[in-house]
Hints:
single chain, alpha/beta, globular
Amino acid sequence: MKNISIKDHKIISQIKLSNLPSHLDLGETEDEVKNELKKVRKKLGKLQDRLYAHGKYSVLVCLQGMDTSGKDSLIREVFKDFNARGVEVMSFKVPTDLELKHDYLWRHYLALPARGKFGVHNRTHYENVLVTRVHPNYILGEKLPNVNTVEDVNEAFWDKRFDQINNFEKHLADNGTVIFKFFMNLSKDEQKRRLLRRLDLKHKNWKFSAGDLKERKLWDNYMDCYQDAINRTSKEHAPWFNIPADNKPTARLAVAIILYNTLKKYQDIKEPELDDKTKANLHLYKEQLNNE
């Protein structure tokens, strides 16, 4: 769709989050947007088959956003036409006791996609510079050397953690992982509407948590942390994309188009050719089957 281009969403310089749009008007009806998504995700599905057969790249899709920003439904709709063996979805929640006995990147490293596969991470390693930065007392649960009080979780601590994340992503990219980081940019007004909907509709009640309201009160803190994280870690090998999330169908289409238009540039991703001996004997194999 001509109204969505990678350059309009890719963050390549320092940004102010309040200047990034949370709404995208494509001038299309919702049905037209949904039909366009169907076309793009079919192309993505075919591309994924080639990626799987090629077996030299993996794709890491990172989804970050405030509660109700539409991450779950985006995963459902964008990857619907993928072969199930080719995509793995992980949703990262509060670290378990076992995970806390390792460094904070350990559980994310274990969840990385193998060559030939897509890994979709719903909330990501960035939780470790977002939620923990808004709630620095959480860091104490990691039982790190030389971090004994909240006062030890200072700017030098965050500088080091951002360096670790940048190094982690550079290592992945250098070894064949194509990284996409999508910030689901939801407005505070739209979040309020979606939370009220969860309360109003009985079949949506299960999605609501009183904790959502506590975190909502910290909205400005979160936006400051998102802005800093994006500015420090949007690199050419691991770029951030701003996805206006106030309208779910257009957000899904934007992600699908960015994925497809980026990955189709990898001209070396193709099915491997048969060896000469097998290729020369294809007619014999056909005869064997037909003569059974």
